[in-house]
Amino acid sequence: MVARSPVLNQSGPAEFVFRVFTTVPEFQALLFLLFLLLYLMILGGNSAIIWVVRTHSSLRTPMYFFLCNLSFLEISYTSVVVPLMLSNIWGARKPIPLAGCGAQMFFFVSLGSADCFLLAVMAYDRYVAICHPLRYTLIMTQKLCIQMVACAAGLALLLSLQLTALIFTLPFCGHRREINHFLCDVPPVLRLACADIRVHQAVLYVVGILVLTIPFLLICVSYLFITWAIVRMRSAEGRRRAFSTCSSHLTVVLLQYGCCSLVYLRPRSSTSEDEDRQIALVYTFVTPLLNPLIYTLRNKDVKGALKNAVLGKAAPSGAN
């Protein structure tokens, strides 16, 4: 009760505003167009993957089931952030109420955490496919795939709910609470608290370890076994295809986990608010965009399905 009283005693509405990227109108227009273009590419690319996987029976395998779910997560968590971000770049800064800030944090953290867990699940799928190919269909059943996705989503929601609820019991300082970021992320919101946040910081580290460190270690172990299995392959073409598939996954993994670890697991004394905001642009725009690019441009099955879909739609019009 004592910790909450400063919020009630502060004058003004309980709301936050985001710090602008730039005050130069020309740069604002340029940033708006750039982020809008990236957002539309993310929506289009990931939606195309979902559509192709759902409509082509040849892609109804565990790998593409996980890829479809990953695309859905990428669309969702960028949509939690980018529309509000664009509205603040284009016009006057629009305040976000306390409840809205909490909701954005909850959905962003939960969707981002589910994304990290799903990447670990995809690594396990590749491990089974390459190290135990004869038992793959027996191990990776539809029931197990659904259970793993549900567990990833459930654990992410649970951790995010507890972290967000804990943070928003804090009192926040100042009449105008300005967040040096483009979203209500955990570290910049914690910096605005006018109370002892050591417990909250410790909880953030624990959540970070559960969401980032443990899945990343599991991915590393999976790929150690995968690498050993690939090296032992007799077929050069088989080794090339296996390395190509796995390198695509690892590219996304290293970017996602690397950037998130810099933001959430660095000591607070060594963090910079401006650096955190720049790094957050990577996992908000770059990794969701890389997902469709990597898995379509470097995957013959998906490219073939897309080509057939386009030609199939074009054929009736050409026939007329």
TrEMBL record:
Signal peptide: none annotated. InterPro entries: GPCR_Rhodpsn, GPCR_Rhodpsn_7TM, Olfact_rcpt. Residues 45-295 form the G-protein coupled receptors family 1 profile domain. Pfam families: 7tm_4 (PF13853). It comes from Ursus maritimus. The chain crosses the membrane at residues 29-52, 64-86, 106-124, 144-168, 202-231, 243-265, 277-297. CDD domains: 7tmA_OR10A-like. Belongs to the G-protein coupled receptor 1 family. GO terms for molecular function: G protein-coupled receptor activity; olfactory receptor activity. Keywords: Cell membrane, G-protein coupled receptor, Membrane, Olfaction, Receptor, Sensory transduction, Transducer, Transmembrane, Transmembrane helix. It is found in: Cell membrane. It is a multi-pass membrane protein. Putative odorant or sperm cell receptor. This is Olfactory receptor. It comes from the Eukaryota. GO terms for cellular component: plasma membrane.
